[in-house]
Specification:
Length: about 150
């Protein structure tokens, strides 16, 4: 079996077929394509204290009314769907982009969650959700005496 080394970037492959190379370079380097390939899911911080769980979701540029938080059995889903269209009269556009923000994050909640004690607030671009624990799940701290 013979091994054949294919030309890499260091070789001049434009001499073979410059049109094909330019098309593929433009296709994969186009900002329109690369912007859509990047996942747009907000970053999340999850912390736990003896009394509750805390979820912080970074979502700047939104409003409180944009968020939908649903709890179904032991799964909490946070979703946003926002469409913004800017129309300016009297101008002819050669390219026009619409702003469309949409994402959904789901979290499986543990059995110790008190479903009646879930609060959410949105401030400075961060959605903060506090999920309380059941009373029996809270760990009581105490000193154990050695005998």
């Amino acid at each position: 079996m013979a091994l054949i080394k294919l030309p890499g970037k260091s070789y001049n492959t434009d001499a073979v077929n410059p049109f094909v190379n330019n098309v593929f370079d433009n296709l994969f380097n186009d900002s329109f394509i690369t912007d859509r390939l990047v996942t747009r899911v907000p970053a999340v911080n999850i912390t736990e204290s003896p009394e509750s769980f805390s979820i912080e979701l970074a979502a700047p540029g939104l409003q409180k009314s944009d968020f939908k938080i649903n709890v179904d059995k032991n799964v909490m889903s946070i979703s946003v769907e926002k469409q913004e269209e800017k129309v300016e009269d009297g101008k002819t556009y050669s390219k026009k982009e619409f702003s469309y923000t949409s994402f959904s994050r789901s979290f499986t909640l543990p059995e110790v969650v008190d479903y009646s004690n879930i609060d959410a607030s949105y401030e400075n671009g961060v959605l903060a959700i506090t999920i309380g624990k059941k009373e029996e799940a809270k760990i009581a701290k105490r000193q154990i005496e050695v005998k």
